[in-house]
Amino acid sequence: xxxxxxxxxxxxxxxxxxxxxxxxxxxxxxxxxxxxxxxxxxxxxxxxxxxxxxxxxxxxxxxxxxxxxxxxxxxxxxxxxxxxxxxxxxxxxxxxxxxxxxxxxxxxxxxxxxxxxxxxxxxxxxxxxxxxxxxxxxxxxxxxxxxxxxxxxxxxxxxxxxxxxxxxxxxxxxxxx
Length: 177
Known about the structure:
CATH topology: Glutaredoxin
CATH superfamily: Glutaredoxin
Number of strands: 7
């Protein structure tokens, strides 16, 4: 019996198992993991269906004060770029109550950017996030070209220039290669 318990604990804590469950954050240059999530209207959006566009993914929650802080700037960025065929903003709410809390929140704050619902928080595991807000900028080839942990000022000419250059050239404007 003792031997069986010893073998169980060895297998449970083996180096191979530890390596398989280790937290490995996504970094710039990584392929953006694919996912499918529903919109508030119930339509499913798959990231891979947006290949060929620059995609800004913003992971947030209604209970997060720093998320609320950057929402008006995300709305302005969305308003400025929503008609550009090479750009897509996807905000992903990880609120456990889903549309029940997200829809009134967006209405109260007059936000109409595309919002996906992830009440199970699966995106946190897929993208190995450390908290909210967290954002990823994906280029047309599906590669992560920027990662932002925490809130960011999404307004201003520098941000618009960054996205404009990224959409125009299809690569990271800071990559001189």
